[in-house]
Each structure stands twice: as C-alpha cells, then as structure tokens.
C-alpha cells in the first residue's frame, strides 16, 4: 500500500521523572528502540536531586545516534508532581498521539506500533487505546497482566469487539511490522458507559491529541491520578479499546504511588480507602473541566445528550454514590449549580429537557450506535440488586501511577 508523501503519525511520549535516575536510562532506551519510527520523547524532570541530570545528558547523546529519534528535556525548578508536570510538558508536544510514561517503567519494542496500528485500524475512531502490563518486582517479572478488570474485559464473550479493518499496512520502514503481528481478536471495545476499571494504567495508555487538548484546557487540581483523569474523561466521551497483549513493564519497587504489590488474583494491590477518596476527587476534576469547556463540547459533540450522559457516568462510576437515587440527586444538583454555563453552551431548551428528565427519574437517551454494551444494559448496572453492590461500586481501583 502506497501513501505517496504521507507518513504515519508522529507520537509524542512524555516521560515524567522525579528522582528515578536509577531507572531512567532503561526507560528512555526502551523508547529509543521502538519499532515504530516516528517518535519524539519529551522528559519533564520534576526538580530531581539524584543523578537524573547526568543520566539525561548521556541519553541525549544516545538519542542523537538513533535514526529519526529526538529527545527534549525540560527541567522544572520545583516539583510540580505528576499531573501538573504532564500539563506543562504537553505544551511542547507535537504528536498527533500522546503517551504519558513513568520514568521507572519500560516499553517492549512493539508497544507504540501496536497502539498506532490499532488506532488506524478502527472504523469507529476512539480517543484512547490501552495495552496490558507485565508487572515486575524490581527487575524480576512476576505477572503478565495488570488488573482483574483488564483480564475480565478481554475475556468477556459479551463485551463485543470494535469494527476494524484488516491489519493496516503502515508506510514501510526498516523496523515496523516484523515482530508485531497484531490480531483483530486481541482488540476489545470499552463502552462509553462502562462501569468498572478495565484499563491498565498511565504507561499502557495512548491518546488522540485532541482529547488531551480538551482535558488540559484547565490544569486539574490533583497531583497524581493522571491516568484516571485522562482515561476517565476520554472514555465517557469516545470509548476506548484494549489491546490484549502485555507491551509495557510496570516496575514495582516499593515507592509506587498506587500498587502495593504486583497483581495477584483475588488480592487487592492498592489501598481501597485511599482509592475511594482519589476516585471522588478525580471525578470532580473531570466534571469541572467539562463544565469549563462546555462551549467547546457543545459545538463539537454529535449530540448534546452525550454531555450529560458523560457526567452521569462519572457520577455513577467514579464517585462514592453509585445507587440510582444518588446518581439522580447528583445530576439534579449538577444542573442547578452549573445552570448559567450550561444554558449559555447548550441553550435553554436543551437545559430544560435535562432538568425535566432528572426531575421525572427517567433517563431516556436516544438510541445510538454504540460498539459495545447497549445503553439499556449499562443503565441496569445502576439499579440495586443487579449485581452491583455499594461495596463493588465504591471499592474500585482508580489509577495505577
């Protein structure tokens, strides 16, 4: 297949580093040695006090020797933490696709290629794709899957698959295509209304640029939880796709913000109380961003109801109030609190329709083409007695950074 002068898209990989000099070289070299050729790597160093500067200087020399690779380093005078650092680093990114990567993790050679081949193969272009993890304890591999949610989503026969084309032939280079052999059966659609956490985490995710632009219109007031903020905001607008292949190594070394140990079936690898608090805060930040960009979303979304459907999904999945009655109460309060902004963005008639809908306890969304679970099935997940207890809804991992 010939694309003339058209080349495959540029991918910006943003590495957030704070005192991970001992892992940084391996991380950056795994990016430099990707089979996918069109990559820029941006490192945002959060005021490291270890040997990170010398490691980065050596990495810049190594990158200069790699064909088509570029490394751009930003040194912050203060530690902005993960999420504000990502917002700042994104200002320097040029890619059509964005990957945020932690400095203590490692990419397998075909990771980026898998993301891009998947993105270009989908007939319904989603805002994010997600690969599975290997998980290691320091330098020793322990497991080849990241979470129970990922495994369940990938093996659920009722989960559906996205409409895809046959494997896309990217513009040929000396590196692409020889090792990947990605199969359509490895791709699994995640519905916009999904009511659990099926993804891996930050380093497994790849985003369309325009989705990050929307979510970074304002800087979220959270230090960590970057993965939850981004995939939570993107998925409820566009859906996402899992790639059922471990292509990243998530390194557990005792200083991780999320994982207390590598994933083990039927064992929590996170602090559930801390995650419940983080879930509520993160959901609130996504909602605040959606309100802040409501004018833009009103112009760009295909139908206005998707906006409040996204807000409802966030309230039901990410907040500690999963029952239907609590969700309706939340939506009423949301509409009342943000009346001026929503009327200005979507118009008084649409706003009045939303108020009436939640006042009557009916959620009658239009029937639309969704490529995974039906809206009716998703709505029943909110009703008590349908296998979704309060404990299951609120005791959910939110992020894996």
Automatic annotation (TrEMBL):
Residue ranges constituting the Glycosyltransferase 2-like domain according to the UniProt record: 12-121
Cross-referenced InterPro entries: Glyco_trans_2-like (IPR001173), Nucleotide-diphossugar_trans (IPR029044)
Key words of the record: Transferase
Keyword Transferase: yes
Record-level Gene Ontology MF annotations: hexosyltransferase activity
Pfam families: Glycos_transf_2
Record-given protein name: Glycosyl transferase family 2
